Amino acid sequence: MRTKHLAGIRCRNTFIVMTDTVASAEPEKMRIDPRRAEALLSNIKDVQQRIQKLQGSRKVRLIAVSKLKPANDVLALHESQFGQTDFGENYTQELIEKASILPASIRWHMIGALQTNKCKPLAEQVANLYCVSSVDTVKKADALEKGRAALAAKQELSNTLRVLVQVNTSGEAEKSGVEPGETAALCQHIRDKCPHLHLGGLMTIGAIARSKQATTADDENEDFVCLRDTRDRVAAELGVEPAQLELSMGMSSDFEAAIAQGSDEVRVGTTIFGERPPRKDAKIAD
Questions:
Q1: Which of 48, 80, 203, 280 could be 164's S-S partner, Cβ–Cβ 3.0 to 4.6 Å?
Q2: 123 in a domain, yes or no?
Q3: What is residue 53's three-state secondary structure?
Q4: What is the pLDDT of residues 165-211, one digit of tens each?
Q5: Considering the domain boundaries, does residue 15 fall inside one?
Q6: Which domain holds residue 145?
Q7: Which residues are recorded with the post-translational modification N6-(pyridoxal phosphate)lysine (predicted)?
Q8: Residue at 27 is within a domain
């Protein structure tokens, strides 16, 4: 593959490094720092071991939250002996850009707050978008449906797009998410009106104070209890088994407590990648 140069583009104060190719659409092989890769592998191995101690017969999905971290870090974990597949991003444009330069075998999760006008482009442009975890309105669900339908018209897709309904379990006005009592209606809409989407379950972020207090498997978090109870009520209203609706709860500070309370997937970033740089200083690739 013959390359011309590396071109930088600026997007929302984030400098993104892209590979400009002549003979191929494939990106230039990114450099992986061996020492950085070793540190990342040590971190993710520790997280996986902690998950395994608590998951029992279940298989808890680990989403490595790579927001504001360079694509090199993602590639190091994906191509490692662990073959980490699931990565989470908080910003639409960052996810789209990383997906364009990283292997299609990665499963991307959009876990951050999502604007309605960004839903269709995201679903249409990223074929290996595995899940959108922050659906909290009918409009967002419909926009994702339109985007995925448009992509399906251009290429064959192996799976429908998995979506999770975000529930505001803490009652905080600044938090995104549908109210617990309104969750079933949104879930029903996705099942009935969005054939290119698959309702995977429910997600919550919860109150920071509760996350800091409930950090071990023995600690109970009210937000996790609320999400579990909401899931059970939604399952009853939809006429499905609760196990058909997964629970996504738990982050770096409280994922062990979340697993102990029934979480099927956890979103871990800082514990794996370290502290994040300010957004304006972040680079997609080094």
A1: 203
A2: yes
A3: helix
A4: 999 998 888 889 999 999 999 999 999 999 999 999 999 997 776 76
A5: no
A6: 32-281
A7: 67
A8: no
